[in-house]
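Journal club prep — side note

Before the paper discussion, L.F. wants everyone to see what a predicted structure for a comparable chain looks like in token form. Sequence:
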Amino acid sequence: MKNPFKIFTRPERSTGSRVVSSMVAGASWLSVLTLWISASSVYVNPVHFKWFGIIGLAFPLFLGGTVVMLFVALLFAPRRSWIPLLGIAACFGSIRSYIPFNPFKEAVTPDRSHLRVVSYNAHMFLFENDKNYTETSAYLRDLHAQIICIQEGPPSPALNDTLRQRFSNTSTPHYDYDCVNASSIGIISSYPIVKKEVISRHEGNGIVAYWLLPSKEDSLLVVNCHLRSNMLTPDERSQYHAMVKSPDTQTEDEMVNTSQKLASKIASSAQVRAGMADTLALFIEKHSDTPTIVCGDFNDTPISYSRYRVARTGMTDAFREVGMGVGRTFNRDAIYVRIDHMFCSSHFSPITTRIDDHSDFSDHYPIISTFRRKRE
């Protein structure tokens, strides 16, 4: 019987085959190296190396390119297929962070003893539309979560009082918030809120910690994050949308100028996010003995320094652990990414995490996680 794997070891005989094989090998190594650089960008603080803050954004493109090169190698130079395979295998952890795949996770039916947490960038509840505000509030109540963390909440004390009243007679009657410029960062809770601390604040963004009291003998620390946004104007968003969806509407010079302008703005914002993430990580490490949930709008993808910095403290990324797929949370401008994240300390095990992509009240989808408290 012939060896079916001989095709992967047999050297090319003709000159043309050798040339093709060399070209495939070169292209494969190029795609693998760009993939590795993108994946390793999470280890580099953008504060020190600005442009590393945007290299991670290209991770899905480099991954796709490496997968394409794998098929090209299998078709035209099977002996070289080990190169893209090696590249993909070496990035397994990064791939799992970006596109979790957990088909064999034990199915657990959530019950009342479990903790359900929602993180939602509410886009200020679109207060110019009272109908949207009412429907969004009703939607959040119907999620039956014990904790709801809001980013870009009501922009004034009066409107925050209105939100407080809407939840005052529900299973989550406790509400607190911190105003950040034209919006707020808040928490709606089933448990009494006994303390609040602003960890970091930068213009319209911030990180706020809330201490909750589930029982007299227990405490829970919830950290609500809204890291620095990319501060793209509506016009810049439209330009990006046109560049992705309708590239024929822009000249080559316009596309280059748009790309350079957006890249510079995103890289500068990534530097601010990195500083906020460092501050957050130090806070988490300081309170490592306290049961903790960290969630919010990080404005960064799973392949980013900010997300990695939090994970490096020992926190578990709930979506990576039990989620499935890309998990898109930002739903505008042809940007198909997960920038909202949910973490838990070692005191918890994530049971389920999902993105509710049927909710259309904001430019974000909520991330919803259920946790089980580990026995001491």
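L.F.'s comment for the group: DSSP finds eleven helices and twelve strands in the chain. Keep this in mind when we get to the figures.
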